[in-house]
Write a structure and sequence with these properties.
The complex is a heterotrimer. By secondary structure, chain A is mainly α. Chain A is built from eleven helices and no strands. The radius of gyration of chain A is 23 Å and the shape is elongated. Chain A starts with 17 loop residues before the first helix and ends in an 8-residue tail after the last helix. By secondary structure, chain B is an alpha/beta fold. An eight-stranded mixed β-sheet of chain B has the order 6-7-8-3-9-10-12-11, sandwiched between helices. Chain B has a four-stranded antiparallel β-sheet with strand order 2-1-4-5, with helices on one face. In chain B, α4 packs across α5. Classes of the chains: A mainly alpha, B alpha/beta, C mainly alpha. Chain C: One of its GO terms (molecular function) is dipeptide transmembrane transporter activity.
Chain lengths: 296, 335, 315
């Protein structure tokens, strides 16, 4: 029957190089565009004071809820007369900072728990994994809400709450990688004893775990942004008048019938960033981690 | 099979064996098939009488399975280039539309697959898969279909048939699975049965039983059967006619006894003599991606591996000629 | 088989135990003195001490936990110090049904539309149609639901005035009103799942259609549609149900946001206002309900495996 079915393109692990990413980008126009969009957000966030026409909390007393138009407020103003374009640009700062911060916390926590579980084995591993199961039993947003209820509101609290909520999924993947590498490393360390043996294992495991973790982290940034802006949208994340997109959308929700741009502008900024990040994430995943593809 | 019993088959002058007798059920004429740059079948012709059995013999990659799939219309058509004719009861299968095929598949032509364990859908019971053609194609009621299904399973030698109907394929042994496949293939009394290596996934001890079963059941129904096999001895025991294929070309074809008793093509000789050597390095089929396979290159496909190859063999393709009661394509036949 | 089930059940109970300890500690970790909060203006040291004793807060922590767990299991979830009503009544009898109605409608919508779209994509692999669906699913999986909800309100509620945009009407009281009020929220919440179901169905079906049993089914005369929709699709069920179970968390999380967009009085609204009012008992109730729902659904999926895939049944 080999005659009939054409051989399927096998999933092989391509060498993880920047050259590889570049080759991929050149053949995938959308990946390239998404990278450019994401980069534009990063630049806008970094240079917000220079890019934004107004300060994010400046109130224009003459222009409340003015629609997008050519003039001083290209994308209109909100109910406080604050410039939506400027707030949206500053909002990129919060979105990216919170997203990256939360992922950093989640990845670090996941690394520690996953390594501990994977390397210890036995009862410790079992207990740790049940703990991770418990973490995974709660959706990130619900867990973040629970943490916020203890921690209180604010940017730093949101980073911490979302970060802790992300530890579960990171731990599980790290442990999986550790188990895989450990099997190989122990073979090599077979002749060695005691400390030396541990050293070999450690030397093998860490680098082999860090790289997939970094890929994972890249992919989860957009999720962290989604959850944190969701918290702010619920009104329990970042507090006003911080130019956070979630907050801005929540505020605009009340005015959607006569001033739809108030929610529309920050919402579009958020949606475009999330879509771009997910295209970037898909590309990164396809490049570096073929086995992850099927989970998506 | 005693040689004394072999009846010399007369060849009326002027008639070529390729030109089939009037009662031919199937005539494959000059069938060529390409996939991309690769030539899978090269000018294959053979005929099959009603009620007769024919074996396509050769190693993997010879194109045997491809012929079987072409005969039931299951080649991935857009990717495959087809040339030549496949006349089934007068109608050319090569030009059949999907609509035509729906009237043929399962009703008049059916197929037994190589590996029954993967050819039975794991998510449906044996009964569901056996009764679907009975109900859909023969229009039986549910109760009738169930009754018939039990008879069919008993017919293929499955004990406890009634309860087997409610079993899932994985709950049966490999041999039982293949018996179920045979029952399904024969359930609609087709005129032509294609059996693609029906025993290759089975334990050696039951291979002969299964072949026997297929033969008995087809004969009982007066159906014709094409076996795809790699075992020349098994093929010649089971079938009336043999077509030996190599690299998509017919090497030698004729009545089973004639070919087995006195093979003339070096390849047939090789197949007969060293059944055990078939899987060795020496007889490894040409890699289908190699340049020599890429296009209609001149010469005999087997020449690179042929011990008695002449200089001519590589340059000029030997014609398929009628000689000594068979068709043969070789410049330097044995004996 | 029974062994597998028993292990799964045990593991599930273990996870729920850990979750219960965690949500119990939530109350302990919470800043401020709950007793003081409860007493409000009636505060006095004597009242404080007597309420402490009454609530058992002067007992050792382990005993408090066991009492709390026991109470939780029999529906004694404490009393809201704002409404003075039992939390169980509010959280379980009023908020949870709203969230479940929303989640179930969204899931039904996603399956009913997503599976056919996925099948069409798989059978028209590498065509313009397939590419269009791929673009839609990519957008669908990454579009923030709360923003989508607002867009839908703007388009269908405000511009076209086709649907009411706010509030919940229980479909068990007023079926038509319930459906009308649930339409936009359900569409909002279903988008992510729809996109995911399309992706999953497509990928798994393409794989299934390459299996020999598909060729065998066609060889016995089954028409193409039956081969795809019956033989192929049946084999896609297992991965589909597995992932849907694992994604239940995302469904509940999306429901929380969607409720807020459409002012539905569900678990999301309940938890949000509880955070703002520092009603930790209510947050706790939300956490426990969500975790139980997620863990028990996944247990059900695990136990349903042998029915979804006969290969997992005993020989």
């Amino acid at each position: 029957m080999a005659d009939v079915t054409l051989p399927a393109a096998g999933l092989r692990r391509r060498p993880a190089t920047l050259a590889g990413v570049w080759a991929y980008a050149r053949s995938h126009v959308w990946f390239l565009i998404a990278c450019a969009v994401a980069l534009a957000y990063v630049l806008a966030a970094a240079f917000a004071p220079w890019v934004a026409p107004h300060a994010p909390t400046d109130q224009d007393m003459m222009n409340f809820m003015s629609p997008p138009a050519w003039g001083p407020h290209l994308l209109g103003t909100d109910s406080f007369g604050q410039d939506l374009l400027s707030r949206t640009i500053y909002g990129a700062r919060y979105a990216l900072a919170i997203g990256l911060g939360a992922v950093a916390i989640g990845a670090f926590g996941g690394l520690v728990i996953g390594m501990a579980a994977g390397l210890s084995g036995g009862a410790v591993e079992w207990a740790l994994m049940r703990f991770v199961d418990a973490l995974l039993a709660l959706p990130s947003l619900i867990m973040a809400i629970a943490f916020i209820s203890i921690l209180g509101q604010g940017v730093d609290k949101v980073v911490l709450a979302v970060g802790v909520a992300l530890i579960g999924p990171f731990s599980r993947t790290v442990r999986g990688d550790v188990l895989q590498v450990k099997a190989q490393a122990f073979v090599e360390a077979a002749g060695l004893m005691g400390v030396k043996r541990l050293m070999v294992v450690w030397r093998h495991v860490l680098p082999n775990v860090i790289f997939p973790l970094a890929v994972q982290a890249t992919i989860r940034v957009s999720y962290a942004i989604l959850v944190s802006s969701g918290l702010s949208f619920l009104g329990i994340g970042v507090t006003p008048p911080t130019p956070d997109w979630g907050l801005m959308i929540a505020e605009g929700r009340s005015f959607v019938s006569f001033a739809p741009w108030i929610a529309g502008v920050p919402g579009a900024a958020l949606a475009i960033l999330l879509i771009a990040l997910s295209v970037v994430g898909d590309g990164v995943r396809e490049q570096f981690d073929p086995k992850l593809k099927k989970e998506a | 099979m005693a040689a004394a019993l072999a009846i010399p088959r007369s060849d009326p002058a002027g008639a070529t064996p390729a030109a089939a007798p009037a009662d031919a059920l199937l005539r494959v004429e000059n069938l060529s098939l390409t996939r991309g740059e690769k030539l899978i079948l090269d000018d294959v012709s053979f005929a099959l009488k009603r009620g007769a059995t024919l074996a396509l013999v050769g190693e993997s990659g010879a194109g045997k399975s491809t012929i079987a799939l072409a005969l039931i219309g299951l080649l991935a058509r857009p990717q495959v280039g087809l040339d030549g004719r496949m006349l089934f009861d007068g109608a050319d299968l090569a030009t059949s539309s999907e609509r035509d095929w729906l009237r043929l598949r399962g009703r008049r032509i059916s197929m037994i697959f190589q590996d029954a364990s993967s050819a039975l859908n794991p998510c449906f019971t044996v009964g569901a898969q056996l009764m679907t053609p009975l109900r859909r194609l023969l229009g039986l009621s549910k109760a009738q279909a169930r009754k018939r299904a039990v008879e069919l399973l008993e017919g293929v030698g499955l004990s406890d048939a009634e309860s087997r109907l409610d079993a899932y394929p994985h709950q049966l042994s490999g041999g039982m699975q293949q018996r179920v496949m045979i029952a399904i293939a024969l359930s609609t009394n087709p005129e032509l049965l294609l059996a693609d290596e029906p025993t290759s996934a089975l334990d050696v001890t039951i291979q002969a039983q299964i072949v026997r079963l297929i033969l008995d059941e087809t004969r009982k129904r007066g159906a014709s059967c094409i076996f795809v096999l790699h075992d020349l001895a098994l093929a010649s025991q089971a079938c009336d006619e043999i077509v030996v294929l190599y690299g998509g070309q017919v090497m030698e074809a004729g009545p089973a006894e004639t070919v087995l008793r006195e093979p003339l093509h070096p390849y047939t000789v090789g197949l007969k003599a060293c059944v055990l050597e078939i899987d060795t390095e020496e007889l490894e089929p040409l890699p289908s991606g190699s340049p020599s396979f890429a296009s209609k290159r001149p010469g005999c496909r087997f020449a690179p591996r042929c011990a008695s190859a002449l200089e001519k063999c590589a340059g000029e393709k030997p014609p398929l000629i009628e000689t000594r009661g068979r068709r043969l394509a070789c410049w330097n036949p044995v004996a | 088989m029974a062994w597998f089930a028993a292990r799964k059940v045990l593991q599930t109970l273990m996870v729920l135990l850990i979750v219960s300890v965690a949500s119990f500690s939530l109350l302990k970790l919470a800043p401020g003195d709950p007793v003081q909060l409860m007493l409000g203006s009636e505060y006095s040291p004597e009242a404080h001490a007597s309420l402490m004793a009454q609530l058992g807060l002067d007992r050792p922590v382990a005993e408090q936990y066991l009492r709390w767990l026991g109470g939780f299991l029999v529906g004694d979830w404490g009393t809201s110090f704002i409404s003075k009503a039992p939390i169980f009544q509010y959280a379980f009898m009023e908020a949870l049904p709203v969230t479940l109605t929303l989640a179930a409608s969204a899931l039904a919508l996603a399956v009913l539309i997503g599976v056919p779209l996925g099948v069409l994509s798989a059978t028209r692999k590498d065509t313009g149609w397939d590419a269009a669906v791929a673009t839609l699913t990519l957008t669908g999986t990454s579009f923030p639901s709360f923003y989508l909800g607002i867009l839908l309100i703007w388009i269908f509620g405000v511009k076209l005035a086709l649907f009411p945009t706010l509030g919940f009407v229980a479909p068990w009281n007023d079926l038509w009103g319930g459906i009308v009020h649930m339409t936009l929220p359900a569409i909002t919440l279903s988008t992510y799942f729809l996109a995911m179901i399309v992706r999953l169905t497509r990928a798994n079906l393409i794989e299934a259609l390459e299996q020999p049993y598909i060729a065998a089914a066609r060889a016995r005369g089954e028409p193409r549609w039956r081969v795809v929709w019956v033989h192929g699709l049946r084999n896609v069920m297992l991965p589909l149900v597995t992932i849907l179970g694992l994604q239940l968390g995302a469904l509940l999380q999306g429901a929380v946001l969607t409720e807020t967009v459409f002012s539905l009085p569900g678990v999301g609204q309940m938890m949000t206002s509880a955070v703002l009012n520092r009603e930790y008992g209510v947050v706790q109730a939300g956490v426990m309900m969500t975790a139980c729902l997620f863990v028990l659904t996944n247990l059900a999926v695990d136990l349903a495996y042998p029915y979804l895939d006969p290969r997992l049944r005993p020989r």
